[in-house]
């Protein structure tokens, strides 16, 4: 039996953020189960936060309902493929965790492991950029040329920063030198990811929905991303 649950955010315990309360229920749900939430506030941010916490495994829909909004959330099954943009968001999250993991190692007493984590992160980010440049940028050239141009320029900037960090990894006698550059790269990447997700992902999803022959492209992106993020590599 597939259960459905209901949560009215007007009755969240005092002092508890609505998003935290919703998450405590949501993360206990099994695949295919549904949570219906009634929110008095516009829920775009809430849904984004829950998707992030649940690693983009949710199917959501939002409709106006009286004075508020009705949000229906279904947990995808393990074998249900994620839409392309959710696969990419998941990969962004994966890289963000790799960053945190590498910086924790560098800040602690495991600098050699920190350098190894940075090296792994570098190759992941390079491959992610290659997928977007080669397979996805063409999807936005027509409908979102400025955002596509911005993405490509930012990729070049990120690759320049990666080259510098790569040199430090190869030559730095004191691996803590990496902290500053890694922090700058993390900030650049963070901004880049959120611009990409807001400016380009909707366009890519729109174009893919119209393309009858999208399966090959989807399969190639998924296969290349899957190879990257299959092992969690101990990232926190
Ligand atoms: Fe990108
Ligand atoms: Fe990306």
Instruction: Detail the poorly predicted runs.
Output: 230-236
Content-based structural category: alpha+beta
Give the overall form: globular
CATH domain class of the largest domain? Mainly Alpha
How much is the average pLDDT?
87
How much strand content do the residues show?
5-15%
Distinct small molecules: fe (ii) ion
Please state the CA-atom Rg, rounded to the nearest Å: 20 Å
Strands of the largest sheet, in order across it?
1-2-4-3
How is this fold's topology laid out?
Blueprint: E1 4-8, H1 18-26, E2 34-39, H2 44-53, E3 58-65, E4 68-75, H3 84-107, H4 111-140, H5 145-171, H6 178-210, H7 214-229
Parallel strand pairs: 1-2
Antiparallel strand pairs: 2-4, 3-4
The site of one fe (ii) ion (FE2) has 6 residues, from helix 4, helix 5 and helix 6.
């Amino acid at each position: 039996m597939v259960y459905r649950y209901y949560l009215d955010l007007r009755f969240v315990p005092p002092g508890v953020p609505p998003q935290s309360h919703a998450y405590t229920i949501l993360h206990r749900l099994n695949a295919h189960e549904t949570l219906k939430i009634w929110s008095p506030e516009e829920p775009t941010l809430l849904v984004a936060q829950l998707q992030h916490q649940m690693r983009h495994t949710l199917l959501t829909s939002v409709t106006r309902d009286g004075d508020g909004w009705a949000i229906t959330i279904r947990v995808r099954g393990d074998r249900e493929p994620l839409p392309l943009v959710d696969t990419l968001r998941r990969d962004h999250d994966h890289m963000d965790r790799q960053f945190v993991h590498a910086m924790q190692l560098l800040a602690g007493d495991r600098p050699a492991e920190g350098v190894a984590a940075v090296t792994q992160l570098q190759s992941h980010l390079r491959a992610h950029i290659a997928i977007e440049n080669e397979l996805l940028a063409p999807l936005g050239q027509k409908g979102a040329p400025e955002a596509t141009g911005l993405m490509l320029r930012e990729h070049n900037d990120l690759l320049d920063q990666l080259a510098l960090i790569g040199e430090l990894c190869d030559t730095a006698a004191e691996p803590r030198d990496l902290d500053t550059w890694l922090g700058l790269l993390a900030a650049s990447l963070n901004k880049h990811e959120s611009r990409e997700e807001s400016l380009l992902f909707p366009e890519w999803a729109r174009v893919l929905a119209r393309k009858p022959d999208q399966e090959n492209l989807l399969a190639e992106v998924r296969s290349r991303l899957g190879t990257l993020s299959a092992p969690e590599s101990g990232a926190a």
